[in-house]
Amino acid sequence: MNEQILEVRNLSKSFPVNRGWFGFNKRQLRAVRAVSFSVHKGETLGVIGESGCGKTTLARMLVGLQSPDTGEIRIDRQHLHKLDSVQRGRAVQYVFQDPISSLNPRMTIGRSLETPLRCLHSLTSTQRKAAIFEIVDAVKLPVDSLTRYPHEFSGGQAQRIAIARALLAQSPLIVLDEPVSALDVSVQAQIIELLTEIKQKFDLTYIFISHDLAVIEAVCDHIAVMYFGEIVEYGDCSQILLDPKHPYTRLLASSAPQIGKSLTAESGIGQLPDPLDPPGGCSFAARCRYATNECIQLQTPRKKTGDSNYVICHHPIVNHE
Amino acid sequence: MIPVLIGITAIVFLIMSLIPGDPATAILGSYATPENVANLNAKLGLDKPAIQRYLIWLGNLAQGDFGRSFSLNRPVLDEILERFNATLILSGTAYLLCSFLGVLAGIVSASRQYEISDKLITFVVLIGISIPSFFLGMMLIVFFTVQLRWLPASGMFAIYGGGDFADLISHLIMPALALSFVATGVIARLSRSTMLEVLRLEYIRTARAKGVKEFRVVTRHALRSAVVTILPVLGLQAGFVLSGSVYIEIVFQWPGIGRMLVDAILTRDILLVQGGVVFVAFCYVFFNLAVDVLQLWLDPRIARK
Amino acid sequence: MIAFVKKVVRNRLAGLGLVVLFVIIVLAILTPLLPLAPPNAIDTPNRFVLPFSDNALLGTDHLGRDLLSRLLWGTQLSLAVGLAAAFIAGFFGALLGIVAGYLGGRADSLIMRSVDILMAFPYILLALAIVAALGPGLMNALIAVAVVNIPFFARNVRGVTVTLAQADFIQSARLSGRSDISILVFELLPNVASVIIIAFSTTVGWMILETAGLSFLGLGSQPPQADLGSMLGEGRAALITNPHTSIIPGIMIFLIVMGINLLGDGIRDALDPRLAKGQLEKPSPLTRIDDCLIQSPPIVSTASKAVMDVNHLSTNFEVGEVVKKAVRNVSFSINAGECLGLVGESGSGKSVTALSLMRLVASPPGVVVSGSVRISDQELLSLPYEDMRAIRGRTVAYIFQDPLTSLHPLHRIGHQLTEAMSTHNRGADSAFVERAKNLLSEVRIPNPERVMDAYPHELSGGMRQRIGIAMALANDPDLIIADEPTTALDVTVQAQILAILKDLRQQRGLSILFISHDLNVMAQICDRVAVMYAGEIVEMGRAPDILEHPKHPYTAALLACSPQIGHGRQSLQPIAGMPPTGHEPLNACAFANRCSRVQPVCHQQPVEVVDMDSQLVRCLFPVVES
Questions:
Q1: Rounded CA gap, B50 and C394, in Å?
Q2: B209 within 8 A of B95, measured Cβ to Cβ
Q3: What confidence tens digit (pLDDT) does each residue in A10-38 have?
Q4: What whole-number distance in Å separates Cα of residue A46 and Cα of residue A37?
Q5: Cβ separation of C176 and A116 shorter than 8 Å?
Q6: Which of A88, A219, A265 lies at the smallest CB-CB distance from C492?
Q7: How far is residue B7's CA from residue B11's CA, in Å, rounded to a whole number?
Q8: What is the distance of C-alpha B103 from the center of its chain?
Q9: Cα distance from A300 to chain C (closest Cα, Å)?
């Protein structure tokens, strides 16, 4: 196995929420709760979860756009929070869900692409030009794009530009936050293909965040299932999807519509617990059909289910029904 | 709220303490002996440090003591209350007028976009926001008083034999019109564009898809949302109407607080200026508080934030 | 720059404002060079000379001074002072706003609290207080007006800056290694600039008015020097006897301010991104029908058992000269109890088709240009508004994509449900309320009583979409048009909503037109599927046939490029090129440019629909399974 490139330990993040009159009763919304995992060089880790599960907060912490309350992030054994912005930019990059909004509307694509080269690597103008031409070619953008403005591009093209910018920072690790969710299926496939291609070419490591299980399965080696700010199941992607151990993972898999298979998912109301008033025990207990009293009362244990796989559940599903 | 009120007094005090020379000289005239000036300064507490003077003044304000106007030789608060009454009649009338007409014009204009009524309203509104209110007031006098001899040009009541309600109204019409015209324009423009924006929203399409009558779509669905946007601006417009009343009071010799302030500035009656400014600003703050409460009631989404 | 001026002048009134302003400014600049009488030369014997006299074109004032000369000098002064005040206010206000908005935290609250306090004064009080302190005089009036307007700029600019500072592109710039200063200058400022310019252009007229006002009160320019405001103030004394001394400066102020306001509107329209496509237009209650269609309605055979028949429907978006063909020649029918799926990528015209049926496409810019939509022998496209309204919500009801934006945010859920009923039925409110609660239980909302009193923002996305469904059911319609009803929802919630819709179909025998971009969702609920591409239906048939044995290359390619669960790591086969833009050629196959089976002939002729084993396919070289 390759060496570790990213190690995350016990990461938590809360946001203060004002509720009630005059800002009394300041309360904390716990977006990410004690998340730990590691990623090895060259692998793709998929993070899956529904809206509100904290996956975007996690992603933003990984690139330093938000600072965690507790816990630590290490990239290549260096603490992320000890790096200055230039070192950080060289260590890890981020691709946004909405590519057009991630590009300055009043700047040509060429200038946007130049920024990481000038600010992170202090290259001369000729060097910058050469690097940009190389990358523009790698992401299959027409060369005349460089003189145009973001609003002239479709979502798919703009995502290529955003990926190009991340590549120009030459960081070995890229966090992709729902990179294909805003795109049409046909374009989504183009971008996924591109990501696979450049990963090999530039020897990259991905953290791929998505709400779409099928997309995650198509691109990831490992998967972390997030629910209500926690990773409830982690492990080898195909093993977990073939045989989910956590009831939530199974619910996710069975909720995804598929051609030639009719849905058998729960139809009752399944909602996240109130994030301002989280339950003491397992946060999924209220929706879980295997839930018992201990699920509601006790802290949920972490159980090893394979080489690197684990699940956080009192009653992991034993055999595949 | 409280910090805002204290902030207002602090700013007023700060500005007033920028005045060069000392008030005692201003009061006693330039022939006063140094001893007289020193005595008066001690009497007025002007020999104390600024922060102490401010606190004393603030304490007095809290007890309703605004000091004594030297130019009028009477308590500042008495004068203010008397004058404010007149200002309230004028500005209040103008404010109600511009809120009602402005919103109405905006709705008509938006729901009949590009029709003749829309064009007419847009034209009148353009004049409204471009004409100085004092100039408009003067033109009204030229037209209605000088040419047509319909309405009196000055004061709040006729000097001889006036004093009843009809007399007040006849004196009020022109100043109120002149004062409300600008604000009507501003509100109408805002109402029109807000309505046009709201009418494009998805829930308006939902209402139409439900088969709701178009009149109801405009009044119950679109207007309901537009009001939430318009209301804070209506609150701000109260400040503009109050401000405009200073000019209008001069033009029509209306015995209001604006005229009092201008006179007080020209005679350098600082306590009167200070008291008048603080008083009106406080009223304005309370008015906007009321608007905020109304807004809270109209928009359930705010309460949640 | 030239392009910008052109854009501004596109608004003809703004052009007029520009001309008026240009003339006045040129006159003001040239004033010292013009052969004018000295503005302050007193000539008492010739006082109050009327305009158009021999020696004084605009007459003289109470001291016999030449009004034309005074007017031009006064204009120069007023413009200079007003503009100076506006620049000062704009500069400091914008500076404070940007600093507060970008830094946030302590600096922000300190600056904004001060701004709040300054804005708590009716503006003139503050101006008066400042003039009172500094003493009357034009410079002091300038300072007063500038100070009073700083908070306005600061607040506006700060609001925009706060939003921008959170924007993705600022975050990207940070990740690209830009320092704070460089973000502020290179990334933020160019984007805030337009807001500053808009705020400036819409308030500079106001500031000229204010300085004139202070002069009018005698607190601005002091005699003998006169700006327009003090001319008006001096004229007031002789208002009754010699109104021309007031009217002349008054009209000049009016012209200046009007010119600025007109121009300001034009600038705002040109810079405001919301107005990028022209003025805000009010959508009419019915989509416009093209004149040709009204004059010669299509002849359609009336014998049909379907709930709805759609024939050769075409809808365009017309913005100025640009015509975008969103829906082209679409025909389908929906039978009783059937669920027909309409699937396609963005820009395929599926939503526009759905909205065209009840003539709900926003118009302008939407126009239905051809075709027919019939419900039991009634032609909808030629119905007058009242008849159309009676069908909407009663015979045909809609469920929209995003339940947060499609429910009225300020109306209670109960009200929105009962309104749907009371619109089409007479009856007691209590009966409607009772029925609404039943509907809520029917869409499996626990505790309907409480939800009736709730506002949409208090509910989760899944709950809101249940409300949307309940509202569609309110009048027991024959057909429900569901426009991407699950797209905005999480996958587990989507499964719940699909289950509800399925059950309702069985219980009520509903007909549904189900629009989605997701073939997997289609497979769950639809009996038949129509695949749309570039405004056309390219394939239509029974759902299992289409989804498992597609015949059109587009359908096949779409299936091949969507990842499937349980297939492990897979390489997808993307479709080259970009989704339809609405500008595809009309006399060729619209998909030809992206098709892997394309032949030269595909580019040369329009492709007709062929029937292959009751599967309609618009292709010359359909996929045939061996």
A1: 74
A2: no
A3: 999 998 876 544 445 566 788 898 999 99
A4: 12
A5: yes
A6: A265
A7: 6
A8: 18
A9: 23
Residue A321 has a pLDDT of 46
Compute the nearest-CA separation of A121 from chain C (Å).
9
pLDDT at A172: 94
Is A257 in Cβ contact with C495 (below 8 Å)?
yes
Higher pLDDT pick, A170 / C570 = A170
Q: Can you tell me the ipTM of this complex?
A: 0.90
- Percent over 90 (pLDDT), chain C: 53
The residue type found at B276 is G
This prediction has a pTM of 0.88
Q: Point out the residue among C187, C520, C557 whose CB comes nearest to the CB of A257.
A: C520
Note whether B273 contacts C410, CB cutoff 8 Å.
no
Chain A contact set for C344 (CB, 8 A) = none
Q: Which of A115, A211, A218 sits opposite C563 (nearest CB)?
A: A218
Q: Which of C232, C391, C405 sits opposite B202 (nearest CB)?
A: C405
- Cross-chain CB nearest to B131 (options C130, C254, C389): C254
What's the confidence (pLDDT) of residue B69?
83
How near does any CA of chain C get to the CA of B139, in Å? 8
Residue of B279, B267, B259 lying closest to B65 (CA atoms): B279
Q: Tokens for C376?
A: 């039991």
C264 vs chain A: nearest CA distance in angstroms? 22
| C20-35 tens-digit pLDDT | 999 999 999 998 888 8
Q: So what's the pLDDT on residue B23?
A: 64
What pLDDT score does C323 carry? Answer: 87
State whether the Cα torsion A194-A140-C532-C486 is positive or negative. positive
User: Token digits for C218?
Assistant: 């005698």
- Which residues are paired to C330 by β-bridges? C313
Q: Which residues partner with C514 through β-bridges?
A: C341, C482
Report the gap between the CA of A36 and the closest CA in chain C (Å): 23
B: neighbours with 3+ CB pairs under 8 Å? C
Provide the 10 A C-beta neighbour count for residue A105.
Answer: 14
Q: Is the pLDDT of residue A173 over 80?
A: yes
Q: How high is the pLDDT of residue A17? A: 73
Q: Which pLDDT score is estimated for C565? A: 82
Confirm or reject contact between A299 and chain C (CB < 8 A). no
Nearest to C496 by CA among A257, B141, A70: A257
Overall average pLDDT of the C286-311 stretch: 79
- The CA distance from C256 to the nearest CA of chain B, in Å, is 8
Q: Is C509 on the interface with B (CB under 8 A)?
A: no
Q: Give C515's pLDDT tier (boundaries 50, 70, 90).
A: very high
**Residues in chain B with pLDDT values less than 50:** 305
d(CA B166, CA B145): 17
Across the A:C interface, residue pairs with CB atoms under 8 Å apart total: 210
* Residues C348/C350/C355/C359 CA torsion (nearest 10 deg): 70
C-alpha–C-alpha distance, residues C334 and C482, integer Å: 13
Candidates C167, C499, C573; nearest CB to A189: C573
Cβ–Cβ gap A260/C548 under 8 Å: yes
| Omega within 30 of 0 (cis) for the link into C622 | no
Partners of C573 on chain A (C-beta within 8 Å) are 189
B239: closest CA among A103, C496, C210? C210
pLDDT for B30 equals 65
Chains near A (3 or more Cβ pairs under 8 Å) = C
Among A174-188, B24-38, C363-377, name the one with the lowest average pLDDT: B24-38
- Taking phi first (over 0 means left), then psi (-120 to 50 degrees means alpha), and beta for anything else, what does residue A175 get? beta
Average pLDDT, rounded, for chain C: 89
Report the amino acid identity of residue C465. Answer: Q
CB neighbours of residue A310 within 10 Å: 19
SS3 A9: strand
Verify whether the Cβ–Cβ distance C566 to A242 is below 8 Å: yes
